[in-house]
Amino acid sequence: MALQAAAGLSSTVAPSRRSIPPPLLSSPPSHAGLRGPSDRYALRSAFFSPSVQLLLSAPSRGPAAAARFSMRVTSKQAYICRDCGYIYNDRTPFEKLPDKYFCPVCGAPKRRFRAYEPAVTKNANDTDVRKARKAQIKKDEAIGRALPVAIAVGVAGLAGLYFYLNNVY
């Protein structure tokens, strides 16, 4: 309320060039963190109240001792070898690897790797974990190979049932 009253009084008084800054913009020595603007008439307007001018003329901060960020890009996606189940999740992105990259476990070329979505744990490339993953991959690929055959057999069965029912009835 006092700020609004002070703002109302200062806006009704004709602007004059005073050498003493207004009390709200002055920086008393007890408030070392607050500092007045370098040119107190630069943003002076009847529209802005003195409290808004304090916000606009916030002191600029010097360079703070911020945490250092490295420019090293970690691989966001893991890739799995289709032959042995090895998971590649090193710092170098898989796309940046040369075409002559081979799986360190089985020697499969880079084209035998595919994207791997599940979360990768620390022991992802242990022998027993890798063998279990390889068995799962082989099972998934076997289902993938059998699916077109099953679809063809199903379509042939439906066609045979259709012709049988049309001839009988």
UniProtKB/TrEMBL annotation:
<protein>
    <recommendedName>
        <fullName>Rubredoxin-like domain-containing protein</fullName>
    </recommendedName>
</protein>
<feature type="region of interest" description="Disordered">
    <location>
        <begin position="6"/>
        <end position="35"/>
    </location>
</feature>
<keyword id="KW-0813">Transport</keyword>
<feature type="domain" description="Rubredoxin-like">
    <location>
        <begin position="76"/>
        <end position="116"/>
    </location>
</feature>
<dbReference type="InterPro" id="IPR024935">
    <property type="entry name" value="Rubredoxin_dom"/>
</dbReference>
<keyword id="KW-0812">Transmembrane</keyword>
<keyword id="KW-1133">Transmembrane helix</keyword>
<dbReference type="GO" id="GO:0005506">
    <property type="term" value="F:iron ion binding"/>
</dbReference>
<keyword id="KW-0479">Metal-binding</keyword>
<feature type="transmembrane region" description="Helical">
    <location>
        <begin position="142"/>
        <end position="165"/>
    </location>
</feature>
<keyword id="KW-0408">Iron</keyword>
<keyword id="KW-0472">Membrane</keyword>
<dbReference type="InterPro" id="IPR024934">
    <property type="entry name" value="Rubredoxin-like_dom"/>
</dbReference>
<keyword id="KW-0249">Electron transport</keyword>
<dbReference type="Pfam" id="PF00301">
    <property type="entry name" value="Rubredoxin"/>
</dbReference>
